[in-house]
Amino acid sequence: MIKLVLAIILAGLVREALVAPTIDLQLMNTLRQGHTANILITLKESSGPTLNQIKDLKFQNRGQKLYEAAEALKSFTANSQKNVLQLLSQYQQTNSLKINTFWITNQIGVKGVDLQIVQDLGKFAEISKIEEEFFIAIDSPIDLTVIDNLQDNEEEFQWGVEQIQAPQVWSSGNKGEGIIVGTVDTGVRYTHEALRGNFAGEYGWFDPTVGILTPYDPNGHGTHTTANIVGRARNEGVAPGAQWTSCKGCSMQQCSQIDLISCGHFMACPTLANGSYANCEKAPQVVSNSWSGNQAYLWYYDIIEYYHFVGIIPVFSIGNSGPACGTANSPGDYDNVIGVGATTIDNKLLNFSSVGPAAIASKIKPDVAAPGAKIFSAWHTSDSAYATLSGTSMACPHVAGVVALLLAEHPNMNYNQVKGALQGGSVPTAGTGKDCGKIPEGTYPNHHVGYGRINALNSIRAARAML
Description:
The chain has 467 residues and is an alpha/beta fold. It has helices at 2-19, 25-32, 48-54, 62-92, 115-121, 159-163, 166-170, 221-230, 257-268, 301-310, 392-409, 415-425, 456-466; strands at residues 22-23, 37-43, 98-102, 107-113, 127-132, 135-137, 145-147, 180-185, 205-206, 243-248, 254-256, 286-289, 313-317, 338-343, 368-371, 375-378, 386-389, 435-436, 439-440. The chain has 13 helices and 19 strands. β12 (286-289), α10 and β13 form a beta-alpha-beta unit. α8 (221-230) runs parallel beside α11 (392-409), α9 (257-268) runs parallel beside α10 (301-310) and α11 (392-409) packs parallel to α13. Keywords: Hydrolase, Protease, Serine protease, Signal. Residues 1-19 form the signal peptide. GO terms for molecular function: serine-type endopeptidase activity.
């Protein structure tokens, strides 16, 4: 009889352990000291089956697919999250909580929780895990030189745009017209002379942290990267005919995990700047992400998979942690993104550009490389300010710009076709005698520059031959 009772008790304990969410120990230590914290709640139910139900449906156009996919996931997550949200809404009446619901990843971000809230959340069987939000540091500016009140000499600064032969694509009448490029960064000075003419407008901006309704950039990084893609002054942009949209996922010094997830959702289905009236048809065709951190960390993977589902091309910088092998950062080291390394004006790998093999299955990373040393672009300090900066953050926009040129000519290209055209059009770099993962730098693809340094004209030709 005693054995039977013990067996029943043990079975109950095992069952409770199976259903109880995993709670981050460091988070609990923080809360037990009387502090509050920002948390990310992940529900057990996956959105995968919901997407599988609609993946074979025929849609009239991209806009309809974006809308139907978002509506399906929003309906699914509303039901999956309802009990948890009911508890949080009760606490919200007495606590200063900021709650974000995420329909792609089936997660809830909550800022300002205390110990009691987390303990109560720990009783929900539908929760998989509760983690403290993490932050990704923004690298200090490298090779920063600020220039203002320039003379009307536009040609001497933009070596990267020239080297990848973007002007030769422009001469055919293609400057990226009809394409919207999204950036997730520190914001944008939207009144800058290089950017004010092609802002996407009312569905083109979101600030998940502060909620300021017009684009701004206290750092400069986001203004620089955005203008490097679509800037219309002084020949700095690779695709100056494209429009831009931006989400402020990063502050002056770091990027918030919750804000980056918010930005991933905004890019998939933009809203007005106040977060209302979602219009998925306004989603960009390509999203440029000049941020990275950690390795083999798959926290952003589901958002990227959703991008693939609805036809958004993800481009990520690979990081500035080189030159040692195995330094490629996430999400740029994912197998489902275009990870970008940086090169110099003499066509060599930038000495601190992160390199592979990727920590995930030792895959080739970066996928391609692009100009990233002393890149000239718009700056945030005035409407006529410019700056030079170095890093893979500057290389990533070059690739995003070429993607915009490809899509302007072939709007129905999918991710694999775009990636194939980029890789097929890339050119060799000047070797430095290094090898990583037993692949010499002179063999392509390799773990230093992937398939080589991008070339816009070659990629356009590769796409034409492919399609």
